[in-house]
Amino acid sequence: MNRALVLLQVAVIGPALLVAAQAWSADAVRGKELYEARCGACHSIEDNRVGPAHKGVVGRKAGTAPDYDYSPAVKASTIVWNVDTLDRWLTDPERTIPGQKMGYSVPQEQDRSDIIAYLVKVSAHP
């Protein structure tokens, strides 16, 4: 196999494997605790609060939770929430969707992975 093709495969497949590895090492039980402690002031799984409800968030297009008044930036976004997009969002919401209104981030990689594992779990079990 030529070197350029190998490098292309690593560039394309590598990030996906990294995200998968993070998901495998994630702890949804700890994620629930983190979600309640860090996200619960503004979000709920079931109800819209300052932020939208997160029930079914994984697989949902950004800006489409029922009965929530999103910023124009999030409404116009083409993002669909998955492990990768949630990780980018929690790392830096403003960089992910400029003009959004969430002023909070989760800088620790393991904390993000655990919160995302919890959101995956509650999205899969409605």
What's this model, at a glance?
With 126 residues, the chain is an all-alpha fold.
Can you describe this structure?
The chain contains 6 helices and no strands. The protein has a single domain, classed as Cytochrome c-like domain (Cytochrome Bc1 Complex, Chain D, domain 2, Orthogonal Bundle), CATH 1.10.760. The longest helix has 22 residues, at 3-24. With 126 residues, the chain is mainly α.
For the biggest sheet, the summary is: none
Shape by Cα distribution: globular
The count of DSSP E runs of length 2 or more, i.e. the number of strands, is 0
| Assembly of the depicted chains | single chain
- The CATH class assignment is Mainly Alpha
- The CATH architecture category equals Orthogonal Bundle
Layout of secondary structure:
Blueprint: H1 3-24, H2 28-39, H3 72-76, H4 83-91, H5 93-96, H6 109-124
Helix pairs in contact: 2-6, 4-6
Labels describing this entry:
disordered N terminus; 6 helices; mainly alpha; 126 residues; Cytochrome Bc1 Complex, Chain D, domain 2; globular
